[in-house]
User: What shape does this take?
Amino acid sequence: MARAIDRHRRGLDRDTLYFPESDPEEEACKAAAAYLGGGPLENIALTDSTTMGLGLLYAGLRLKRGDEVLTTEHDFYATHEALRLRAVRDGIVVRKVRLYDDSATASGPEMVSRLRAAVTDRTRVVAVTWVHSGTGVRLPISEIAGALAERSRGRDEADRILLCVDAVHGMGAESSTPVELGCDFFVSGTHKWLFGPRGTGVIWGRSEAWPHVDPTIPSFSHEAMSAWRNGHPPQGPAAVLATPGGFHSFENRWALAEAFAFHRAIGPARIAARTREQASRLKDGLSRLRHVRLHTPRSAELSSGLVCCSVDGTHPGEVAARLHEDHRIVASVTPYREPYLRFGPSIVTRPEEVDALVRAMASLR
Ligand SMILES: Cc1ncc(COP(=O)(O)O)c(C=O)c1O
Assistant: This one.
């Protein structure tokens, strides 16, 4: 992938009209569809990030004043802010439900039942996050989808509850596809667990769900531009029209197909198993340290690659700085009201590195 980025960058530097032989944007959509399921034109929109995808989705969903969007207290700023902006603009109602009180002991059935209980007759959209980046909790999305399908039974197709998922900390770490999860929209950046190019992302939408979204940024697709030249509104697949036009960091976007191909070559199930193995090893090690409190569930059913914890009496920022300075270990601090220390062991982390991290954490006391 790095080689592909470099090849495209050099091509663009040399010649502003550089364009690879096979349309690389089409290749990126095909690769995304091969990985996520569905078809490149029917289901995939390309974006520059998760935040852009969520912004476009929540700005573009066909909702009217008084329609309700149900989200949770645990989502990232990007979901909450995109919905707040939409509420300010169009008078939709946004409600937030708390799915667990203590992340470490979160329970799948309880999360589903708390969410189900918060749905009302006015709920049109449920906006959740697959793996919470503030705690590492992984939601039982397919069970949530089942509960919402039940709640939608009897409603007109136009009023069915749409399940929209911020999938950024699941895609590339978990192997379930959007269809297996049962969601309507699956939004993700591709630079995190997929290790794709910076400044790239996707929105996957079910074919029946895409018509519920109006584009926000003009598409540069052939269909849209020729419709404009001929003086009528654009026709064409809704996912294609939802892909923002304009000049992008093309050297990165055009290398996206390689990132999906890399994961498919290894196999998403093997990647998920390895990611889980590393995260479990880390959680086992951290749970033996008396000064460390684990906030991510131990259960593999309710977690993924993210591991969040805190150290008694020390701010997570200070721990992250010490890990970096003394051990060359990179940890982040969750950007939430209650900040935790966060690790992301993955397929590029070796078990010995996980053990070294546990030893470094042990040495903090
Ligand atoms: C759950 C979640 N969603 C979205 C984002 C933003 O992703 P991006 O940088 O791709 O916009 C983050 C973190 O950066 C996140 O933790």
Observations:
- The longest strand covers residues 123-129.
- Residues 2-266 form a domain with the Aspartate Aminotransferase; domain 2 fold (CATH 3.40.640.10).
- The chain has a mean pLDDT of 97.
